[in-house]
Amino acid sequence: MTAPAPATKKWGGLYQGVVVSNVDSTQMGRLLVRVPEVLGDDPCIWASPLSPVAGTASGMYVVPLVNSGVWVQFLGGDPNRAVWVGFWRGGAGEVPPAAKTTSPGVPQIVLATPGQNALVISDQSAPLGGITLQLHGPAGPFIKINEKGIELSCGPGLASIQLMGTQVIVNGGALMVQ
Prior knowledge:
With 178 residues, the chain is mainly β. The chain has one helix at residues 36-39; strands at 15-21, 31-34, 45-49, 54-55, 58-59, 69-74, 82-88, 108-112, 118-122, 130-134, 142-146, 149-153, 160-164, 167-170, 175-177. The protein has 2 domains: 15-88, CATH 2.40.50.230; 95-177, no CATH class.
């Protein structure tokens, strides 16, 4: 009688990984990640993305920066079949600045790039709440929509148009149309 083959370790659960490369020649959102707890310090593995929305020519596509922290799982516990499923933050400094424009505890959704381009959807009351599309941080152009109206601006102190109720306000009141 032969002895049974030794059991192969299964890697269930989530593991902290770090992005080594975000250049995927297949352009499918794969990341080359290092997962020391599973693979040791040197080996890296390509991890496919888990996306909340995907379909033919549609869905969500996110590519994190190199050295970003990502959560990694292994399909069927197999260390050769990695999937990256989300992000972990190394500290409060990694939270997008646009996420700090709403009071703590107020429901919001923030999508932001490292260049501070952001889409903020907030349940906070006007003027801070509503939907804001911001280019290059608070000093850049923006579009803001909330219960008070719609504002289109080239940035603070620059050209702007506000639609508020029955009024159109241009450049902070230089021209008002009722």
